[in-house]
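An instance follows:
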Amino acid sequence: MGKISEILPVKLICGFISNNEEYFTQAGSILESEYGKIDFTSKILPFVYTNYYEKEIGPDLFRQFISFEELIMPENLSKIKIHTNNIEGQLALKNKRQINIDPGYITLAKLILATTKDHSHRIYIGDGIYAEITLHYFKKTFNPFEWTYPDYQSTEYINIFNQIRLIYYKQFCTLFKI
């Protein structure tokens, strides 16, 4: 029989997609009031990987990632996804989202994203939410799987996640006195 081990806190991240950078600021402020200080903000990147969001949000989309100083417990991810969906609704105009918010978390070994969509590689975590292991850490960098979204496979995004992982690693070492 396996021994149940202690569950460790993880690094909350959120990815934003919008065609108006002001929504990044608004969503970030709302999230910061709930989850604590933002400790990493990526540069704003063109989002050219799919036109999936254009019908609702519009053309000329951008992407930005943030992470939070305060660590979370992984079992809170479903509630965080519900909260980010509510924020998208708050910021909507004429029943159309103006921003997409993708929450997830980083551990030393992986990047997990939350989604409302089921698929063969996703696991139900409660409250109508699924979790996907999007990247795994191997040979000193994050690496994609065959199902990983094309943008999350890009060198630019992987560099961002490696930076956030380094922040988490330092927090982890401090927390556990390694």
Observations:
- The first strand starts at residue 11 and ends at 18.
- Residues 10 and 107 are 6 Å apart (CA to CA).
- The longest helix spans residues 155-175.
